[in-house]
């Protein structure tokens, strides 16, 4: 009612002017909105295509896969921010003010999310110093497995039981890192328990002979079998063949089988712990 009475008191010419202006503004805004949506879609497509093309070029140039993944992730985030600023400028919003606001927001977010920035910084150092690369088998931050991706903030590791672990970069960088893929081969560490009555020199000779017959066990360095320690059951042998990283678990399990089969075939008695219990005679007066 109020709106009707207001328009009733305004001259018809002015009402028409207002309506016409409103239509023009709505039409202009609608065109800009459609243009912004089109700009966003085209921009997204161009960013994905450009980053994908750059990734292919870098891989063709044999650039480290870790660096490629890190650069592409960073470029996608940076270019999307530029695209958003461009769309805001298209709507007539002052982008310099927006940039200042973004910077202020960045400071506030940085103070609140210090851990996130620490993960980002750690990711940069992981790429620069390269303690491991994508595809390496490592142990870090309590996780052991194959590195699938080193991201801006997190690293993805697939563990041996095929579980994907997503670990913060800062947690990895601040912890001890064991890279099992860095060296061309590694040692398998196993033990074999002997009975007290077994001739340890004979057992060592038998094991060395059988270990050299296991597939993928290296001849240089040669498998090592020595007395590691003694316990109540008898001598404990350290059984240590060497192999390439890819063959570790096959050699590990085959070595266990060889220990069992070799000692069984030789007829060695089962290790037993022997105790002597001496009773005290009752003293009578």
List keywords for this structure.
three-stranded antiparallel sheet, five-stranded antiparallel sheet, 8 helices, elongated, 54% helix, Helix Hairpins, 3 domains, Alpha-Beta Plaits, SH3 type barrels, 10 strands, alpha+beta, 285 residues
Account of the protein in words:
Helices cover 54% and strands 18% of the residues. With 285 residues, the protein is α+β, with helices and mostly antiparallel strands. The chain has three domains: 16-112, Helix Hairpins; 131-179, SH3 type barrels (Roll); 185-266, Alpha-Beta Plaits (2-Layer Sandwich), CATH 3.30.70.100. A five-stranded antiparallel sheet has the order 4-3-2-1-5. It has a three-stranded antiparallel sheet with strand order 7-9-8, covered by helices on one side. The model has no long low-confidence stretch (mean pLDDT 82).
Describe the structure concisely.
By secondary structure, the protein is an alpha+beta fold. The chain contains eight helices and ten strands.
Distance between the termini: 124 Å
Estimated structural class: alpha+beta
Individual helix count: 8
Report strand %.
15-25%
CATH topology label of the largest domain: Helix Hairpins
> Strand arrangement, largest sheet?
4-3-2-1-5
Low-confidence stretches: none
Q: What is the approximate shape? A: elongated
CATH class of the largest domain: Mainly Alpha
Number of domain units: 3
Major sheet, described briefly?
5 strands, antiparallel
H/E element sequence: HHHHHEEEEHEEEHEEEH
- Which range best describes the helical content: under 10%, 10-25%, 25-40%, 40-55%, 55-70% or over 70%? 40-55%
């Amino acid at each position: 009612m109020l709106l009707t009475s207001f328009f009733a008191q305004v001259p018809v010419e002015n009402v028409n002017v207002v309506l016409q202006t409103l239509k023009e503004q709505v039409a202009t805004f609608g065109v800009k909105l459609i243009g912004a949506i089109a700009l966003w879609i085209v921009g997204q497509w161009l960013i994905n295509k450009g980053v994908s093309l750059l990734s292919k070029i870098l891989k063709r140039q044999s650039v480290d896969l870790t660096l490629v993944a890190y650069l592409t992730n960073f470029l996608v985030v940076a270019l999307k921010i530029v695209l958003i600023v461009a769309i805001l400028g298209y709507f007539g919003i002052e982008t310099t003010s927006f940039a200042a606001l973004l910077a202020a927001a960045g400071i506030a977010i940085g103070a609140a999310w210090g851990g996130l920035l620490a993960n980002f910084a750690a990711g940069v150092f992981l790429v620069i110093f390269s303690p491991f690369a994508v595809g390496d088998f490592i142990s870090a931050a309590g996780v052991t497995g194959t590195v699938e991706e080193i991201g801006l903030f997190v690293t993805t590791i697939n563990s041996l039981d095929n579980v994907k672990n997503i670990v913060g970069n800062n947690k990895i960088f601040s912890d001890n890192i064991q890279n099992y893929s860095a060296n061309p081969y590694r040692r398998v560490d196993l033990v074999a328990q002997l009975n007290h009555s077994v001739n340890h020199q004979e057992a060592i000779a038998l094991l060395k002979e059988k270990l050299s017959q296991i597939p993928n066990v290296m001849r240089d360095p040669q498998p090592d079998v020595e007395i590691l320690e003694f316990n109540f059951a008898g001598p404990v042998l350290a059984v240590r063949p060497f192999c390439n990283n890819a063959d570790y678990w096959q050699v590990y399990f085959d070595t266990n089988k060889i220990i069992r089969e070799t000692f069984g075939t030789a007829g060695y008695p089962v290790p037993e712990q022997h105790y002597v219990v001496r009773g005290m005679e009752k003293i009578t007066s």
